[in-house]
Specification:
single chain, about 525 residues, alpha/beta, GMP Synthetase, Chain A, domain 3, eleven-stranded mixed sheet, 18 helices, 20 strands
Length: about 525
């Protein structure tokens, strides 16, 4: 299992056990190692601001030798204030010319030497993106996931899952070469860093992971796992649900009956809350869950405790973080804050500078701190995923919380949903249109829509003003037929892997496509 690779490597080598013996004693030895790592993470909570300052100094030292650093005048930059003046906030499109130089074979462009990988990912507006991963940045991707599991082990004492079968629903590990650099999905790249002796624990097989077509791959994954002792399952929630659905269809059993030792679910990539109820119902009981905040650009935060809300920011792993008030992210000169100046409850766009050679990079995610001692946060949405067609600036967190509350009150389970503005071209009022695939349809859909609308009005004062002022009509729900979102994702070539449906859009592109799969 990729997430556990680093921990087992460290444990096994000092004892020089053979492979079979190493597998037997793995869970026993995990506990002291977990305690050791956990204590180090606890210490890092206290030194987070100092660690961030030291990382910036280290990044600048290396950056001065690069084409980017020379162009930005890094030789004259010594403070964060000077850094902000030298490096503007950029998105991928603005970074692309530098990446193109690397793809042409140039060295020392954004970071020393050349990247060891390109992580290939689909951008919302940029098409295919090629994110550099360097020798210095790869430990951030590997060790952070490991640390999340070790924190869980140290806190709960549950180490037995390490002896069972573990699965990560990931992209293909087959890599192409772009500019001579191995290139593929991040999850496929990480797959290459699993030690051979751990592959006896990892499912699915390498051959199955190489299958590109998600539906074919899913069937093979079920073939390989349905009779195994699965103890940990990891992936993004909508695709884990598809896996569970197929398992239940074939076996006629709940997941906990099929896998009685399944005790840990690891998830990330989207907000877990809208999917949680259905996932737990499929499992048949509530099990421990570990949330992660990874991306091709870096591994930013992880759930370090089952008792505390939010994700611990990864403050000592080669990334210097900046935070821009979300409302200012599209300004020419937005306010930029380092970690020491953030406030609890504010919505920030996340900006990163890293030892992968990303500088002033606008990741596109927004976060909100729940505490600053330690620095724990939640992901609230995407900077480009919002609705402000009428000046309301509704964000992902608001629609998800509104839907979650309505669904809980009405005992309704939601498979998937997305929201788009409907701008009336006639005398009728405009409104927000919610495309919703229900697991069980509300008894009274109109009443459900009113509750949902009321919840959103409570969350967003601008939206409430527009409804109160009769500028907008209350939201309308368009039911999507069963598996409609799956069919939509298939139609655009984004079924499976780490792809997900945008929760919000400020135009009708997704809405027009989804109209093909609405319920009759």
């Amino acid at each position: 299992m990729t997430l556990f690779a680093g921990a087992t490597l460290y444990i096994c080598r000092p004892f020089r056990a053979d492979i079979a013996e190493c597998m037997k004693i793995k869970s026993f030895l995990a506990r002291p190692f977990a305690s050791y790592i956990y204590k180090g993470i606890r210490k890092g909570m206290v030194t987070a601001v100092t660690d961030q300052e030291n990382i910036l100094k280290s990044l600048l030292k290396t950056g001065r030798t690069t084409e980017f650093g020379k162009a930005a005048g890094f030789d004259k930059v010594n403070t964060y204030e000077e850094f902000r003046q030298a490096v503007p906030v950029r998105d991928y499109e603005q970074m692309r010319p530098w990446v193109d130089k690397i793809k042409e074979g140039r060295h020392n462009v954004l970071w020393k030497g050349k990247p060891i990988y390109f992580a290939k990912t689909s951008g919302t507006t940029s098409g295919t993106k090629y994110i550099p991963i360097t020798k210095e940045s790869i430990p951030n991707h590997i060790n952070t996931a490991r640390n999340a599991l070790l924190c869980y082990m140290a806190e709960t004492g549950n180490t037995l899952f390490a002896n069972g079968k573990m699965i990560f629903l990931s992209g293909s590990p087959v890599l192409e070469r772009v500019g001579g650099i191995p290139t593929g999905r991040l999850s496929g790249i990480v797959n290459h860093h699993v030690p051979k002796y751990l592959r006896t624990n990892q499912l699915p097989s390498y051959e199955t992971n190489c299958i590109e077509d998600w539906e074919t791959k899913l069937q093979k994954i079920v073939d390989e796992t349905i009779n195994k002792d699965m103890t940990l399952i990891s992936g993004i929630p909508p695709w884990m649900q598809m896996y569970f659905d197929e398992l239940m269809k074939r076996s006629g059993k709940k997941i906990s009956d099929l896998f009685p030792n399944f005790s840990v679910m690891v998830q990330g990539g989207v907000n877990f809350e809208p999917y949680k109820a259905k996932l737990y119902e499929s499992i048949g009981k509530k099990i421990d869950c570990i949330e992660l905040f990874p991306a091709s650009e870096g591994f930013f935060a992880f759930q370090d405790s089952q008792q505390a809300e939010g994700l611990l920011l990864n403050t000592d792993s080669g990334i210097f973080f900046e935070f821009v008030p979300a409302a200012e992210i599209f300004n020419e000169n937005p306010t930029r804050l380092s970690l020491k100046d953030v406030k609890v409850g504010e919505n920030y766009a996340l900006i990163i500078n890293s030892n992968a050679g990303l500088w002033g990079y606008n990741l596109g995610d927004t976060v909100k701190f729940l505490s600053t001692d330690p620095y724990r946060l939640v992901v609230t949405g995407r900077t480009k995923h919002f609705i402000s067609a009428f000046g309301e600036h509704v964000i992902g967190e608001e629609v998800e919380q509104s839907m979650l509350k309505a669904a809980q009150e009405e005992n309704v389970h939601i498979t998937e949903f997305t929201v788009a503005p409907f701008v009336s071209s006639t005398e009728g009022k405009s409104y927000h249109e919610w495309f919703v695939e229900f697991e069980n349809t509300p008894h009274d859909l109109d009443q459900f829509a009113l509750k949902l609308d009321s919840n959103l009005r409570d969350k967003n004062v601008y939206y409430d003003d527009l409804i109160t002022g009769n500028i907008l009509a209350p939201l309308k729900i368009t039911p999507v037929r069963k598996n409609g979102f799956i069919d939509y994702m298939k139609s655009i070539g984004k079924l499976g892997g780490q792809n997900k449906v945008p929760r919000l859009s400020n135009d009708r592109k997704i809405a027009e496509e989804l109209s093909k799969w609405t319920a009759e």
